[in-house]
Amino acid sequence: MSIYLARNGKMLTRLNGTRNFGAIVSPVTPTPPFDEVTIGSQTWMSKNLSIDDGQGGIYTQTVNYGQGDVVEYYYTWDAAVRVAATVDGWHLPSDSEWGTLEYVVGAMSAGTKLKSTYGWSSGNGDGSYGFAAFPAGFWSSGSFFNLRFYAYFWTANEYSSYDAYWRYFDTGASMDSRYDDKTVGYSVRLIKD
């Protein structure tokens, strides 16, 4: 049996190392469940979200970027919105919040400053801010693509009923914004409320 600390239906932290949701409420003040990094006035997760709530739209693969295995989680946009809404004190960042991050670190060099220092096919980051975006690529129609070349992250903004905005890093120095089909699986970083 798993035991969790919860408030208002949102997971605060887990006590046994698993990432599923439980139902026991505790008055204990939990420690934050995520490693975080403050950049300017924003506090971000310093690692990709890795929660599977068992409701679908979440895919995983084990990746070795050169320093041990990592399980990467890929969320459809609906799954990203759904899971982010369950994490107390955090939310799926808007495209504007990503834009603020890009501006604070320097738009033309945001990729260099926010990417991980290893794992990229070329153009590793310099670790300036501890954000460590790994090139996890994306999931679509049962397959994974662009591993070691791109890092994609959903935003909270919809473009249409079928598409939503995302931010990405490639092997270059900058980051960019696009929109795509909500059924594609991208990584998720949350930002503190």
Task: Give a quick precis of the structure.
The chain is mainly beta and 193 residues long.
Task: Describe it.
The chain has helices spanning 77-84, 95-105, 110-114; strands spanning 4-7, 10-14, 36-39, 42-45, 58-64, 69-75, 90-91, 138-140, 143-145, 151-158, 163-169, 175-181, 191-192. The protein is mainly beta and 193 residues long. The protein folds into 2 domains: 1-33, no CATH class; 34-192, no CATH class. The strands form 6 sheets. Strands 10-11-12 form a 3-stranded antiparallel beta sheet. Strands 1-2 form a two-stranded antiparallel ribbon. A two-stranded antiparallel ribbon has the order 3-4. A hairpin with a 2-residue loop joins strand 8 (138-140) and strand 9 (143-145). The longest helix is centred in the middle third of the chain and has 11 residues, at 95-105. The model is unreliable at 1-32 (pLDDT under 50).
What portion of residues is helical? 10-25%
Distance N to C terminus: 31 Å
| Domains (count) | 2
The dominant shape is: globular
* Uncertain parts: 1-32
Put simply, the count of helices is: 3
Residues in β-strands, percent: 25-35%
- How many β-strand runs? 13
Q: What class, by secondary structure content? A: mainly beta
Q: What oligomeric state is this?
A: single chain
Radius of gyration of CA atoms, rounded to a whole number: 16 Å
The description of the largest β-sheet is:
3 strands, antiparallel
| Average pLDDT rating | 86
Spatial strand sequence of the major β-sheet: 10-11-12
The ordered string of helix (H) and strand (E) elements is EEEEEEHEHHEEEEEE
